[in-house]
Amino acid sequence: MDSYVPPYDATAVTRLIDAGAVIIGKTNMDEFAMGSSNETSYYGPVKNPFDHTLTPGGSSGGSAAAVAQKIVPIALGSETGGSVRQPAAFCGLFGLKPSYGSVSRYGLVAHASSTDQISPLASNVRDLALVYKTACGRDPNDSTSVAFDHPDYPGLLETNGKLRIGIQKECFAEGLDSEIDKVVRDAIKALEHDGHTCVDISLPSTEYAIACYYIITPAEASANLARFDGVRYGLRVGSDESLDDMYSKTRSVGFGREVKRRIMLGTYALSSGYYDAYYLKASKVRELIRREYEDAFSKVDLIVSPTTPTAAFRLGEKIDDPLAMYLSDIYTIPASLTGCPAISVPFSRMSDGRPVGVQFTASYFDELSLFQIAHILEHWI
Q1: Is residue 18 in a domain?
Q2: Which of 2, 194, 276, 368 lies 20 to 30 Å from 152 when distance is taken between CA atoms?
């Protein structure tokens, strides 16, 4: 609601303030972080600073646009399946999805609790590493947060070590824009020129990542958003009606079209007689994907792929085609399902000037390698 003032700060925000950060305000985003174009926002779509006819990406499109427009040097967004990496690619920024558990989710409105992560965006690698270093670490208010040794990321960007990088062949197939294919391969050539080894790898189960994601995350969203019933807090419509009528009217008015769609998908997947066929099977596929990544990281240090199959598309182009919209996150979703950290690095542009992002995924809590590889490519931009 417009007048809502939260009673407390998120842990990530508190840590930034304690370190001297100045919080400017909140940015626009897709409703409940459900969207890939920022067009499902209650406040209307954000426009891409490079071209106001284009989407900045979603769900954290407002955060990306604010950094790209140089309103702020850094911003936080929320990542569930690509909601920071995809806007970073569309707006020519660096965007990090941290390892699951590395940044506290306390204060983050829950979408899908097993993949949600507070994630930073910045126009350069050093700022990105600095905000992550400040925000990460164990928080007693979040039982999923992890205590781990996190180094001085900004101070360790320079490295003389050479990395072994896997090129995921499944990401260079039908559906990938030919110009983006070339940009990613140019980035690979730049890394090889710098002395890094790039080898082809296969992660065959990622073919099912989109289907898996759109069973698991709507199911979790269905459970998480049940609290918005008009009884305990927030919007209430029809308070003089029966309880069932009040529930129905509150949730009809309080949720937008895309949020309702995902709640219904999730509720169906969890319903009696369908749980085993959908949610349980998707959970098993998720484990297969996780194991393939784990095996890959026993052979390579990083995995490279496009961040998105296309560059920023026009506002209104996909809003009435949910499947096309969902496929915008086809390359970002696997890292979210596995919990691995991943970064989108801006590298070159399309012939019409739209930014292109190259994605790198690392093993759990190896954000340092992501920052270092991004720092190398930053000199080639």
Answers
A1: yes
A2: 194
